[in-house]
Amino acid sequence: MPQIDVPLVRGRFGETSRSDAWWLQPLAVFLGLSIFIVYSTWAALQGNNYHFGPYLSPFYSPLLYGDAPFAWFGPDKPSWFPTFLPFSAAMLILWAPGGFRFTCYYYRGAYYKAFWSDPPNCTVGEPRKSYLGERFFPLILQNVHRYFLYLALVFLVLLAHDVWEATKFPDGFGVGVGTLVLLANVILLGCYTFGCHSLRHLIGGFSDRISASSARQACYNCVSGLNGRHMRFAWMSLFSVGFSDLYVRLCAMGIWRDVRLF
Ligand code: FES
């Protein structure tokens, strides 16, 4: 069995005996997440071009206030919304999927390394001397992830319903490229959400043992299978949700033309 000697002495910041390009992964995470955060914040603040034909951008779904026929409660912004803030329906809902991703176990490990070098990567010297982990404020709040999971499951149902609505064209049932874009997004989001560590614990049984129920064991094995690819689906679904908004937005702006397949 191969062995790697890892010194137990605390090195200086950035010091390591690793000879590989250990900085490449945190750099890629930093760039990927930064691009997504900038784009999604910009798109969420626009408050327009979020639907085209039967397609609704996932950044604005569920659309509580906004354009017909998608809006649940009409076109006007709610009376309780502060008048000094620019209104965008996306701001009312994005905290839920955003919170789910922000507290995701995979993303935590990734952005702790990429955004504040804690640590820069495995076996690379950290910028601080103490390690508090996530047992203290504020990082202990990351434990709220299990509750965001429940919301994420609800959003998954709503986005799946949007795919069904995206087949309802003025002349009847149909499928366009936009329908497939939204469908691929829901599938990837499903693979990401159903591979959640919290769901794995939730569905597996008890805190210290797996349930004896064969149905729950089968579910546990399914979730474990997706969980093993959690990082991959985290990135694929992040890209797909951003691209879905971009697709709808550019079609609504007349820059891209949606192709009706049948
Ligand atoms: S651990 Fe990543 S979504 Fe729950």
What do you see in this structure?
- The structure is a single chain.
- The chain has 262 residues and is mainly α.
- The protein has one domain (24-252).
- The chain is 50% helix and 3% strand.
- The protein has nine helices and four strands, in the order αββααααββαααα.
- It has helices at 24-46, 89-93, 95-102, 105-116, 145-165, 177-193, 197-204, 214-227, 230-252; strands at residues 51-52, 55-56, 168-169, 172-173.
- The strands form two sheets. It has a two-stranded antiparallel sheet with strand order 1-2. Strands 3-4 form a two-stranded antiparallel sheet.
- α5 (145-165) packs antiparallel against α6 (177-193) and α7 (197-204) packs antiparallel against α8 (214-227).
- The model has no long low-confidence stretch (mean pLDDT 93).
- The protein binds FE2/S2 (inorganic) cluster (FES).
- FE2/S2 (inorganic) cluster binds next to α4 and α7.
- Residues 104-106, 145, 196-198, 230 line the site of FE2/S2 (inorganic) cluster.
List the helices and strands and how they pair.
Blueprint: H1 24-46, E1 51-52, E2 55-56, H2 89-93, H3 95-102, H4 105-116, H5 145-165, E3 168-169, E4 172-173, H6 177-193, H7 197-204, H8 214-227, H9 230-252
Antiparallel strand pairs: 1-2, 3-4
Helix pairs in contact: 1-4, 1-9, 3-5, 5-6, 6-9, 7-8
Bound molecules: FE2/S2 (inorganic) cluster (FES).
FE2/S2 (inorganic) cluster is lined by residues 104-106, 145, 196-198, 230.
Give the gist of this structure.
This protein has 262 residues and is mainly alpha-helical.
Rg over CA atoms: 21 Å
Task: Catalogue the unreliable spans.
Answer: none
What strand order characterises the main sheet? 1-2
Q: What ligands can be seen in this structure?
A: FE2/S2 (inorganic) cluster
| Helical fraction | 40-55%
Q: Helical element count?
A: 9
Mean pLDDT: 93
Shape: globular
Element pattern in H and E: HEEHHHHEEHHHH
Q: Note the gap between the termini.
A: 57 Å
* Percentage of residues in strands: under 5%
- Class inferred from helices and paired strands: mainly alpha
User: What's the domain count?
Assistant: 1
Extended strand count: 4
**Largest sheet properties:** 2 strands, antiparallel
